[in-house]
Amino acid sequence: MITNALLSAAVLDLAVFFFLADRLRFLTPYRFLIVQRYTPAILVSVVVLSVNTTAAFFALGRRFFMKDTGRKLAHLDRELNAGRTPMPPHLHREELN
Fold first, then answer.
1. Burial class (CB in 10 A: 0-12, 13-18, 19+), 26
2. pTM of the entire predicted model
3. Which residues, other chains included, contact 57 with Cβ-Cβ below 8 Å and sequence gap of 6+?
């Protein structure tokens, strides 16, 4: 789930950067001045944007793809403890000694 959030955030961040690069083309003559003076601020902004988009995609993934997971796992646990669900032979606890 974290890898999906990181991949989605990276794709969205790249899309934003390409969009901004296209829209800010008029600043090309001043690129050396901008890089020299504002590199720390640009890097902090990029890191904050990346962290926030990763967190947003992670939260959305948990909200929509992990819905009712606890209830489903509790149901499976009850069935396994009741002995109604056949276990594969390689997972029996007696054989793990």
1. exposed
2. 0.64
3. 4, 5, 8, 9, 12
Q: Residue ranges of the domains in the chain?
A: 2-84
Place of tokens 């050396």: 32
pLDDT in tens, 44-55: 999 999 999 999
**The residue to which tokens 């793809």 are assigned:** 65
Instruction: Give the number of residues written for the chain.
Output: 97
pLDDT tens figures, 12-66: 999 999 999 999 999 999 999 999 999 999 999 999 999 999 999 999 988 887 7
**Virtual CA dihedral for 67, 9, 47, 41, nearest 10 degrees?**
-130
